[in-house]
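retry 2 of 3: previous attempt timed out while embedding zinc ion. Reduced batch size to 1 and resubmitted. Inputs unchanged:
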Amino acid sequence: MTEDAAVTGFADAHMHIVDVGAKGGYPDIDDAALLLSCTASFDEWEPQRRMAAADARIRPFYGVHPWHAETAPADYLEVLRGMLEDDGRAGVGEIGIDKLHPGPETQMRIFVEQMETAAETARPATVHMVKTEAETLKVVRMHSGDVPVILHSYAGDPGYTKAFSAENCYFSISSRILRMSQPRAMRILSAIPDDRLLVETDAPIRDHAYGSMGLFLIALAALRSTSVDELVGLTTANTLRAIG
Ligand SMILES: [Zn+2]
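retry 2 succeeded.
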């Protein structure tokens, strides 16, 4: 993307700053206004804390991802609570349940424990959900009165979108949606209320067709028949509301 076509001032609702710091993969990160950064495993918490302290655009989310559920140390919840107490801007994530990964009991246990911690501390949570819409909805219903929930890389059916919309949920769209057929992508997008729409890179960006947030936003704006400025304005306002 050339300099004059740069999209600026966007809010990225889901990315991984520790991985970007180590591997790159976010060419237009300087154009971001806000970066909601998640961790996947416990050992990323401290590096992310240091990076967030050095860049006011980074809102750190601390969590153990379902893929790493088995690696959470026994005292991880105590540490999580400490991280949240130390930084009033911090949230909880990336947490969730993934049907394509083993260990559903452990996944569910640490998901619920971390959602409870988010609720008790009144912090937003970022949720990874793969083929577990029904299970996730059940857990979200118990807690979303207390916490806003960001559904990462959302691509659920309109029926689920309606159910999640009735809770305090936000729908974070990634470039995954642009690889679907246009009718299917539109069916997903048009069910999402305007005031709940977020955008994300899940950086480090691995999508070769949309290798920057700018390229993704241009394509998504075209699909929604809006201007890029309008899309950036809407999703940035929504992201700010989601993180309170
Ligand atoms: Zn992620």
